[in-house]
Every structure is written in C-alpha cells, then in structure tokens.
C-alpha cells in the first residue's frame, strides 16, 4: 500500500493506525465526558418519542416541533457561549457549566406528566448543550495540532457515539427488566450525566491562549471578520442538516412498522454502532483525502438510508436504514467540525463554531417541522422520501461546486 501524506509528511498505514496514541489527553477526557453524557441522553431520548406519543398523547407534528425547537435552542445558545469563550479566553468553565445544566434537567423527564413538562426539560437540556457545544468544539482545536484535527474530532465523535450506543442498549434491558415502565428506565439515565460532569471537571486542562480578550466585547462584530471560506462551510453544513431531520423519526418509524415498545431503542443502538465504528477512521481520512469526496459519500449514504426507511415494511428494514444513517453521520459530522476549525481564525474559534451551529440548528428546526407535517399529512414514507430527494439535490450541488473550487486548503 502506498503511503499517505499528512501536513506534507508521508505516513505509513501502520503509523495511521497509531495516530490515537499521540492525541492529547484532553481529547480523551472530552471524548469520555461526551460518552457518559450521551449514554444518559440517549437512554432517555430513545424512549422519549414513544413516551410522548403513547403515554402523553402527543401528535407527530408536536414531536417534530419539540425536537426542532430543542435543537434550535441549542444552536442559538452556541453563538453566545462561543463568542463569550473567545472573549474570556476560557472555554472549560462554560463547557462544564453546560454539561452540569444538562445533568440537572435529566430528572424532569421521568417526572413529566404532560407534553409541556417534556418541552421544558428538552428546552433546558438543549440550553445546556448550547452552552457547552461551541466552547468544547473550539477547545478541541485549541489543544490539537492542526494536522491531527480530523483524528481528534473523529475520536471525540466516536466516543460520543459509543455512549449513544450504550444508552439505548441500557434502555432495552431496563424496559425488559421493569416490564415496559418507561419512567423507571429513564430514572437510571440520570446517573451517567453526573459522571460526565465529574470527568470533565477533573481531567480537562485548558491551555493558555494568546488570543484571549482580542475582541473588545462579546458581539456579532467578530462574525464580520470570518472569511468567505468559513461561510461556505457554514452554508454546506446547513444544506446537510436540511436533508437530515431529527433522529426521533427513526424511532417512530420502527414503531410504525410494528416493532415492540421494549425493542424500539434498538434503532438508536444500530445507528450508533455504525456511527461509533466509523467516526474515528473517517476522521483520520479527513486529514488525508479529499473533503469533497467524503462529503459526497456522506450524502449518498443519507439518500440510501432515506430510501430504505421510506420503503420499510418491517423492523429489519428500519434497522438497515438506521445503520446507513449512522454511516452518513460518521462521514460528515467530524469532517464538518474540522472544516470549521480549519477556516476560522484562532481567536474566533468559539464564535465560528457558535454561528455554524446556529445556522445548522435553524435548518434542523425547519427540517423537523416539515418532517412531522409530511408524516401527519402523507404518511411516514413521504417523510423519508422527501429527505432522500433533498439529499440528492444537495449531492448534485456539491458535485457541481467541487468542479469549480476546493472547499479546503490544498490536500
């Protein structure tokens, strides 16, 4: 096999496999913090759509609105927390505060007696995610050499996905153990959230940054200093998000084709097996090969996932579609984070990630509301087939754009 180049230097396949050994300890701490928080969140969230529909009587449109508003809230908060972390030059405090807020909202879910309770819990939980998201993503770039950022974001995403895999697995076991008592199962999900806060507090060390305070005040003025290449990446991220609505609809699709309530979390388990398994290799690939090719592959995988889910007539087909969905996430999410980091000035990393997530969150809100409306009016298949159509349009646009200009610096 031929060697591949990273940062102008050739690396053998053996060296490629050992990249993880040279990543900073802080990346591992951030990854395990994400693992425990996602274990908590996904245990609860894999049960939440069924809980809202079967126990609380919510409609599909309501589920879409709640999911979309929750993610959009997180996106808005990321703008302010990202800009504040740039101004203060301190990201860890904001990040840990966001994780702590999310942990303290987890008990609200099993206590909920109405959709309003769930909406409140999801809102506060996503505020916590918004507070932590941009500072955490910027911190990854702060503590990682530029030529290893793809691997660093890939590793964090992989560990995050391991937690997202363990959570639904626990949900299945707990639902069986507690005879489909969703509330009791969700109570167990509270514990890993507080472990996440402890891990991040104890093991993440923030480097001193020369750019602290370079912005005179926390405002949108920093956005004017972001280069055109950054805005192209942000637009690309929004297009990807519009083609991919909330994963809550995967869970509901499994129910729609007759999967028993106890086994519905298997949808998220299967999705996260492929996500966790491929996120780190995909991150390493992002440091070495054409970004446009990886993004196009991600869109092809999303189209395939939507088509399988759209025509699904059995739980097995839903599982197959969920696996493809996870592969799409693995090839795109870490890469988009790397592209943001690579196109944003160092003193504006928090702001850059915040704006990127704001735009993506708005796209997710729109996509989720449309998905819920399509489901209600035309059925489940229409929701996923519309997603496939939009992803196909995005893929054609990406192919056309890649012929005119490169999205990233010379590979």
Query: Biggest sheet: strands, sense, closure?
Result: 2 strands, antiparallel
Helix content: over 70%
Strand order of the largest sheet: 1-2
CATH fold category name: Growth Hormone, Chain: A
CATH C-level category: Mainly Alpha
Strand content: under 5%
Q: Architecture, according to CATH? A: Up-down Bundle
What is the radius of gyration computed over CA atoms, rounded to a whole number of angstroms?
Answer: 20 Å
The CATH superfamily title: MFS general substrate transporter like domains
What gross morphology would you assign? Answer: globular
Count of DSSP helices? 17
- How many domain units? 1
Contiguous uncertain segments of 5+ residues:
1-17, 210-219, 407-411
Distance between the termini: 19 Å
- Derived from helix and strand composition plus strand pairing, the structural class reads mainly alpha
Description of the molecule:
This protein is about 75% helix and about 0% strand. It is mostly helical. The protein has one domain (about 25-205, about 225-405): Growth Hormone, Chain: A. It has a two-stranded antiparallel sheet with strand order 1-2. Strand 1 and strand 2 (about 10) form a beta hairpin. Helix 4 (about 60-90) runs parallel beside helix 7. The longest helix has 30 residues, at about 350-380. The chain is globular. The two termini are about 20 Å apart. Residues about 1-15, about 210-220 and about 405-410 have low confidence and may be disordered.
